[in-house]
Amino acid sequence: MLNLFLSLLGTYALICFGAWVLHRYFLYMPDKKRYAPKDVGLAEVEEITFEGRGGVTLIAWYLPARRGKPTLLYFTGNSGSAANRARKIEAIAASGYGVFMLNYRRFGGSGGWPTEANNIADAVAAHAYLEEELDVSPRNIVAYGESLGTGVATRLALLRPVKALVLEAPFTSVVDVGRQVWWFLPLGLVMTDQYRTIDRIGSVKVPLLIVHGARDSMIPVTQARQVYAAANEPKTLAILRRGDHNDLFDHGAWTKVTAFLDTREPVLRPAVVRPVYVEQVALAS
Questions:
Q1: Any idea what the Cα angle at residue 264 is, between residues 66 and 45, rounded to 5°?
Q2: Cα distance between residue 150 and residue 127, in whole Å
Q3: pTM for the model
Q4: Residue-wise pLDDT tens for the chain (285 aa)?
Q5: In Å, how far are 16, 29, 114, 170 from 254, measured between CA atoms?
Q6: Most buried pick, 163, 173, 221, 279, via CB within 10 A?
Q7: Under DSSP, is residue 223 helix (H, G, I), strand (E, B) or coil?
């Protein structure tokens, strides 16, 4: 009996070690192919190359904002690349907003390997490039995160000045998401990249919008509510009744984002005392 127990314990330890070694292969699922924006119908979007930490070449897609509109510094989810978000870019452009969408390392032709530390460092580099090379003031930069990118955007909002923070389908941490499937593994110990948004959102001081689908099959809407509860005012929560994880723009997400951003004052202007937001739970079709 003891031998059986030791054998099972050894097997479990081996599984945990494998999870520690391989977890990033499950966390990051890039489309590595380098597309030109025109290949996916975005003739006015420019491909930008710039240098990330360690000299790695990074690729981003950029569309300038119309006068008076902010630019979204956009961080994608854990799969695909900027090319897979072409329809989102079209919607953003049609409203006059600018967008600077980063391809993480190994995504969309960018070099290197993605890790949480690398993605955060590259987000800071992207912000610097947008400000210094493209002359976009921080008061007109919105940190925008989608799914995995919500962890990146939240960290950026703590490290660099931005106008506002928008989180589309956020999680408390990727450990909490992973536990839904890998409940039998000590993910808090084996995962190096944890993106613990719930531990950091309370330090964010800029206006916050959270958009989440009530039917999200990947990240439960309860996690969005927990992030919202831990955040500071001013904050807004929009729950899209029919939204899943990857279809929020089809169910009114962008309308919620534009309504939120069109009422924001730039973060770098002198502070003005204003009424705080209360939770607004939008039941959009």
A1: 25
A2: 15
A3: 0.87
A4: 665 545 545 555 555 555 555 566 778 999 999 999 999 999 999 999 999 989 999 999 999 999 999 999 999 999 999 999 999 999 999 999 999 999 999 999 999 999 999 999 999 999 999 999 999 999 999 999 999 999 999 999 999 999 999 999 999 999 999 888 777 677 777 778 999 999 999 999 999 999 999 999 999 999 999 999 999 999 999 999 999 999 999 999 999 999 999 886 543 333 333 433 334 444 333
A5: 40, 25, 28, 16
A6: 163
A7: helix
Residue 213: both structure tokens together:
């689908």
Residue at 153: amino acid letter: A
- Write down the residue that tokens 């409203």 correspond to: 95
Q: Which helix (H) or strand (E) holds 159?
A: helix 148-159
Contact between 50 and 129 under an 8 Å Cβ cutoff? The reply is yes
